[in-house]
Structures are given as C-alpha cells and as structure tokens.
Design a protein that fits this description.
The protein has 337 residues and is mainly α. It has a domain of 212 residues. The chain has 13 helices and two strands. α2 crosses α11 and α3 packs across α9. It starts with 9 loop residues before the first helix and ends in a 17-residue tail after the last helix.
Length: 337
C-alpha cells in the first residue's frame, strides 16, 4: 500500500509567493521605464495631455482601490477628498502665497483627518447604505463650496501665472513636468499598495472584505482596519486633486467636486480588477483615453456617450470577466488572504 502523500512544505508556498512579488516589481519597473520614455516619442501636446490624465486617474483609482478594492468599502464620494486637495492647495497659494508643494501635503493631511472623522460614523453602516452615505456627504460638500465666498463660490479660483517654475509648479506649454509628476504619483500609490498588500494590514483588509464577522472572530480589528484604509485612500486622492489644480490652473466646484470624479476613480478599478495591483492602471489606460477621444471628436453632440460606453464595458466585464481585465493575463492577480 502506497504511503499517503505528504502536504507540500510551507517553504515552497512562501517561495512561490516571494517569486510572485518579485515578478510584480520587475513588471512595475518595466512599465515605469516604458511610460517615462513616451514623451521622447510622443511630441503632440494633445496626446501628452491624455497621458497626464491617464496617469493621474491611474493613481486616483489605485487610491480608491485601497478602500473600495482591498477593504471592500465601496465609496462613491471620493470627489470630496479630490476637491479638498484641489481647494487647499489653491487657497494656500492664491491667498497666502504658500507653494503648491506644501499645499499638496496639507491637502492630503486635511483629507485624511476628515476621512477619519467621517469614517467614525459611516463605518457603522454596511453595504449599499455606506455607499449612499458617501454620495450624500460628497454632494453636501459640493453645495457648501458652491456658497463659500472666500473660496470663490461658484466662480472658482484662478491661479496667477508667474512664468515656468518648479517652485510654483506651473509650466505654460510644456507637459513634460506634469507627465513625470503624474507618473511619480502613480508610482508612489502603486508601491504603497504593494507594501500594504503583503503586510498584516493588507491581510486584515482582505479578511474584512471577504467576511467581516469571521475576520472579527479571528481577532481582526474591523473598525481600525476600515479607518486606516480610509485615511490612506483619502490622503492620496487629495494629493491627486492638488496636482490637478496645479495642472489646469483654474478650479471651481463642478470641475473638482462633481459626482463624475467619484465615478472616474472607481470605474477603472472595476474594469481592470478590484482589489488587484494592476487593475486600476489597466482600467485607466482604457477608460481615460476613450473619454478624451469622445470629448474631442463628438464635442457637445456626444455628451453622455462616454457614460453609455462605460456602462456597456462594465456590463460586458461583469458577465465575461467578473474579476476584471487582469484575469485575462493570469488566473487571478488578486492576492489571497
């Protein structure tokens, strides 16, 4: 009689995990090099503008993915944090003369604190009740800014242009500085997600997402896990809003706090793969260029066409590839808890 098969040693499993993590880093480095070299071949200003927006939304979607993908708390109110970053940086620069670099950090910290304050109440809700609450709070924030005279109310804030300068982070015609900053923002959010994914917090978040009651019975601190994910997600979202304000040099409530921004942060992750490292980037690489092409070639006559295409894409992916587009490249890019 043959001896029973012994279980595979843990060291093999750990080794396979380490190889997967290293391969992720090699792929990440290759993507960074490829994107960083694009401006040397792409000279068209319009195309460079699309690259900036794609990288920015890849970073924003990765930020959203920390809370919505890994922790399972689906927020559709992240436009609030985006707007906080944009308005904090703009007000500090135009009213007090504080450089945008400091405004980015201040905006991120303020957004994180507000996320913690809101989370203290919102995380008592679950499922679609939480999602609805995030929408309501974001819309309330939009209305408040609409009527905030010191912040320009509905008129908005125009950044004064003092010439090309890294100090004020303003460049008249060149898109290269914005491309590389957006690439750096994406790189930081990806690396933070990568580190967290392999940490205790990452495992906690995925446990909370899969089954909060079971996770709590095993000693996972549910509330603290959600609060931490919310703060990290809000911080990077606000930094993205600060960058956008510097990039366009003019903001108003509708241009940085409208509901569409919350959707454009969530949809790339949904399309690419929620709770994965590469899902947000892959989704943004498809959705954002499609949005810009729709606006450019259809103009006012095509208003709403991009939303129709979004809906169709999401329905197709939900039916054919529920795990997102990243599942086309491997069995599952999502890590297991």
């Amino acid at each position: 009689m043959a001896a029973p098969a012994l279980p595979r040693p843990l060291v093999e499993t750990t080794s396979a995990h380490d190889r997967r993590r290293r391969s992720e880093l090699f792929l990440f480095a290759a993507v960074l090099v490829a994107v960083a070299s694009l401006p040397f071949f792409v000279k068209d200003v319009y195309t460079q503008n699309v690259i900036v927006l794609t990288l920015m939304y890849a970073a924003l979607s990765q930020s959203w993915n920390i809370l919505g993908g890994y922790c399972g708390q689906i927020s559709l109110g992240h436009a609030l944090y985006f707007g906080i970053g944009a308005y904090t940086t703009s007000l500090l620069y135009t009213k007090l003369g504080i450089l945008p670099w400091f405004g980015m950090v201040a905006g991120g910290l303020i957004a994180a604190v507000i996320a913690l304050a809101l989370g203290y109440q919102l995380f008592r809700l679950a499922g679609h009740y939480f999602t609805i609450a995030t929408i309501v709070i974001a819309e309330a924030g939009l209305l408040l800014v609409h009527n905030w005279d010191w912040a320009g109310a509905a008129t908005g804030i125009q950044w004064p242009f003092t010439g090309d300068s890294w100090a004020s982070f303003q460049f008249g015609r060149s898109k290269l500085p914005y491309i590389y900053f957006a690439l750096g923002l994406f790189a930081v959010t990806w690396l933070v997600t990568f580190v967290i994914e392999g940490s205790r917090w990452g495992y906690w978040w995925r446990a909370v997402k899969d089954n909060a009651d079971a996770a709590q019975s095993l000693g996972v601190m549910i509330f603290k896990s959600k609060m931490a994910a919310s703060a990290v997600s809000a911080f990077f979202t606000a930094v993205g809003g600060s960058f956008y304000a510097a990039f366009v040099s003019y903001i108003d409530p509708e241009s940085v706090m409208a509901f569409q921004f919350s959707l454009l942060m969530a949809l790339p992750a949904v399309l690419g793969g929620i709770g994965t490292l590469w899902g947000p980037a892959l989704g943004a690489a498809i959705l954002i260029p499609m949005t810009e092409v729709t606006r450019s070639y259809l103009g006012g006559s095509g208003r709403g066409i991009d939303l129709i295409v979004y809906g169709l894409l999401i329905m197709v992916i939900a039916l054919a590839r529920p795990q997102g587009l990243v599942s086309l490249f491997s069995r599952s890019r999502a890590p297991r808890a």
